[in-house]
Structures are given as structure tokens and as C-alpha cells.
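A common beginner's mistake is to predict each chain separately and then try to dock the pieces by hand. The better habit, illustrated here, is to supply every component at once so that their relative placement is modeled jointly.
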Amino acid sequence: MSEAPDDLVRAVEATLFAAEAPMSAEAISAHLGGADVTGALQALALHYACRGVAVVERGGRWHFQTAPDLAHLLRREREDLRKLSRAATETLAIIAYHEPVSRAEIEAIRGVQTAKGTLDVLLEAGWVRVAGRREVPGRPVIFATTPDFLSHFGLATRKDLPGIDELRAAGLLDPVEDTLAALMSPVEKDDEIRSDALASGDESA
Amino acid sequence: MSEAPDDLVRAVEATLFAAEAPMSAEAISAHLGGADVTGALQALALHYACRGVAVVERGGRWHFQTAPDLAHLLRREREDLRKLSRAATETLAIIAYHEPVSRAEIEAIRGVQTAKGTLDVLLEAGWVRVAGRREVPGRPVIFATTPDFLSHFGLATRKDLPGIDELRAAGLLDPVEDTLAALMSPVEKDDEIRSDALASGDESA
Amino acid sequence: MSEELILTGEALDGAWHGPAGAAGEDEALYLELDGWEGPLDLLLDLARRQKVDLRRISILDLVDQYLGYIDSVQALRLELAADYLVMAAWLAYLKSSLLLPREEQEEPSAEELALRLQLRLQRLAAMRESAGRLMGRDRLGRDCFRRGAPEGLRVDRKNRWTCEWFDLVQAYGQVKLRSTPVVHMVRDRMVMTLDSALARVSSMLGVALDWMELRDFLPAHADPRLRRSALASSFVAALELARLGKAEMVQDECFGPLHLRKTAA
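With all components supplied together, the output reads:
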């Protein structure tokens, strides 16, 4: 038997365990009469780090889940997870890495029109939400990801998106026009222009 | 961090956690490729004995549950402070002055029908209780106040409620018409009358 | 096939053999058409087949391949043409620009067009790779699981009622006021009825010889409240006697004493 945790840790543990949805620290605190649960959450995360279930934070909300390395034991026979089309996965990635982003901006990256159903699937899955409108002519709707998106893909925050720092550093999250303007401004005459320009683009981003 | 459990314990832990219904040791074993899970279940039960959640066996089947002493966390009560309605206040006053009293008698005194909810509110507040039945045809339920009623209103006994004479002296029984007449009559001797009337009018309003 | 490759991220490391796959080129292209959505998509796939860094691909080669591909596809799938041909036309223009001597080029320059195309391909490739890595993460409901049968948290709202002492007492006062029957009590006052005044005044007139003031007909030591009643009744009695011609009335001035005497027979 491990050492008995203190009452607050036990209470936070029981609350998170019983909850049907991920809970923010504030929600847990409110449920427990206003106690400061930050330390208890850290203690729990640490305690469960090596166990078969884990306490994780996703987008500011906490929940229990099974340890990822046990996935092979638990994968369900019936795949009730919706299999996303390639169009939907690309669109989801574009929204996640660029958010907030309009449909036109998504299409500019993918080079094709986005079918109506593609965004609907993501909205229905609860991974994408309408995040308002861009204040430009036409006031297009802009999209962003949801906390459920982070929970589903096991991301603590958007900063944990795979490779996002590298992409940003490489300027690959900037609009083509911005990079183009930066690359074209030096009046180079060399044949090497293309690769040079791109290389310097990497550094300057 | 506690000592890392072995792989089988972790697998049983995750399996039980993710299960949608309690599982027998055999079912867990079958799920995990036939491993002997008896020891792992014992180890889990021991590990969780002091924590906020517990691994328990019920009728040969195992499941996770919130620690029994923390069950109150699952169903919390939140109190909303609410002011008694006018109708409920009048009903409460009538019960206090006339107890024990039946609904019909309350209605006779109030001069209006009493909504079902009105008495329910007073019962819920804990200020009124059913004090038996009146031995008359129909055997109506009769109501009386509770000790909580006395303590809420800071009364030692019901006799501490002001009598009719005191109410009258306080202007609480002044007919509205008299007060109005005093206010309207221009031929009164002096201004004192009018301000008196106004004062008592304020109290009774 | 292409979707799986995207999902596993294999497409990135150059191990992918492109839409051509193992089968003959034309057939493979045809078979893979359903996986493609548009020109950039196809360009990206073609670029990958060169197995080079996107930044170093030859736009000229790419354009050649694309145009060749369009030629073959058109024969197979006419309905594809529209979208693809826009890009094909643009690429043909780009190709001619790249082949022309630099000084004869119009704005925007072929370099700019080529660079723009390259940048777009890079971005799409980056997003494809990211999508693959994202989909390959430990996903909730597939790799990780939340508790299968959570008890759930419930918050039951409960009312705590309040009422002030004053409100209680005042409410009772209002109830009493509202429900107590309103009774008008008329105090039993001493009055002189008209009949008795008539009898009294006519009998006193009968014995009087001269004018008499009205007040002289009133009971001498009566209660003041009776006197007021008697005065009113006697006045009305006097008027009645005058009307019947049994008495005469005189008043010298307004509000002055009212005198009364028996009519001379």
C-alpha cells in the first residue's frame, strides 16, 4: 500500500474520477467548496505517472485516462471512432496550426475548394468551433479548435502540436504572400535566387 | 511518486478503469490474453485502499468506484438563498398565530385559495410541520410551526409574537381607508396629523 | 493508399513511390484519382516522386510531368479536366516564361510565379505531414480511454428560505385587515325626532302669547348633543307649522335669531 494521500488529494482524485467530462481546476475547486486544488492536481499527476491510468491536463481541463502505452491491450474491437477523410484531416491540421483561420485561408493552403461536409464533420466531432468573424471585407467566419480537440489528441495546449515550433521557425505557418514579399524584396540577379531566397527565408522567420 | 507497479497490474488497472461494467477476474484475464490476474487485483485493491477511489469486488466482479467516505462529493448540494413570497409569508403568519390550523382555515382567514406550492415551500423551509389531522368530517391535515421557525425568527415561544393590540398600536392594523382619509382631509387642525398619518401609512404599506 | 500514407506520415521520408506505385504509370494514375482533390495536391504528389527536397525541385520538370499527366488523364477521365486544366494552362504559361530569356518577361516574373508555387507546395506538404503526425498521436477513444462508467457529479440545488420578522408580522396585520368584516357602528345618540319636536313646538306655541325665539323651545338643561338635534328638529317643525299656516316666522337679519308665534286666528 502506498502512503495515504491527504484529504484534499483524495477529494480531487474522487471528483476527477467520477466526473463524466474533463474539469478545469476552477470547476474542481468550485465543486470542493473553493479549495486550492493546484497542488493536489500536481500530486495526482505525479502519483499516477507510472500507473495504468494517468491524470492529464488538456487545454486547461483535467481528466483520468488509461496510459498510452497500454493502447494495444485496450483497443476496442468495434472501431466506433469516426474515420476522417484525408480532406478532413488536412483541414483539421490547417485549422489547428493556423487558428483562427477562414475557409478561404484553408483553401489557399490546400489548393482546392473545401466541401461543405468537410468542415461539418469537424464541427460535429466537437473538435472545431466557429471563433467569430474576421474584420475584413466580407467578414468571413473564422474557425478554431476546441478543448475537446486537445483532449482527443492528447495535447496539453496548442504548443504541443507536433512540430509547430519548427513550422513556425521555417515560416511555413506564414501566408505565402508574406514570405514572398520578404523573399522578393532583395533585388538579386543570381540564378541561385530560388534556393538562396528560401534558405534566408528560413533564417529570418 | 509511488513505486512503479508491474506491467500486469498496470494492464488490469487500465482494463478495469476503461470497462463500462464490472468485470469478473476471468473476463479480465480473457481480455489480457489469459494471464492470471488474481494477484494483480489484490495488489490494486491494496494500493487503492487509502486513496480517493477504490478497487472493489462485488459478487465476483471487480470495478473502480469512488471511495465510500467521499460519496458525498458525487452529489453536492448547493444552497440558493430565496426570499419567501408574499403568499407564503401570509400563510406562515396565519399558521403561527392560529396553529394548529387546516388549509381550509388558512384560506378562510386569508380570503384566497392557497396554492399547493405555498405550503410546500414552508414545509421545505422547515418552518411548518404537519401536526396531525383535525377530527372533523374529512379529517383535514392540520399545520403547526416548528422549533426552527422560532429560532429563525428569534422567538422563545409563539407567545412572543406581537398581539393584535400591539399590531394595531404599531399601525399595522390601521385600515387603509382611514389613513387615506386622514391624508386627504384638508380640514384637519394641523400638520402634525398629516405627518402622523403618513408615518403610520408607511409602516403599514 | 494515399490516405494511409498520409496518416502514417510515411510520405515525408521519401519512401513513398508516388501514385505510380507498382503498376503501370497510366493505370496507377487513373486508380489514384479518387484520392486527389485538385491541382496543388497533384503537383505535390508529382514533386514527391522526384524524391527531392521540395525547396530544390525543378519547377520546370514538375510542369513537364504535370502537363504530361494531364494529357493522359484527359483521355481517361474527361470530367476531371476543368479544374486541372486551369492549373495546366497556368503551368504552361509558367513553363514558357521560364524558357524565355529573362529580359523579355512580363511582370510578375517567372521566378516569382515559380517561387509562389514552391511556397504553396511547401505549405501544403507541411500541413499534410502535420495532419499525419496529429492522427498518429495517442488518441482518446482509440489509444487512451476515459473511465468507462463514471459515477458522474451532480449538484443538487436546494433553496434556503429567508423571511424577516417584520415581514411576517406585517403580513399577519394585512391579512387581519383584509379579512376582518368591516362593521360600521352607529353610536346610540340622544336625538329629538321631528315628531316629538312638532308636538313640543305646537303645544308651546299654543300657550305663548308673543313672539318666541326658536331656542326658547329647546329643552333647557339638555345635553349639548341633544340640543343640537333638538334645534334642527325644532327648526324643521317650525317650518312645517308655518307651511300649515299654524305659525308665523320672522328673522330680522341673516343668521339672526328666528322668532315664532302662533298665527292669529
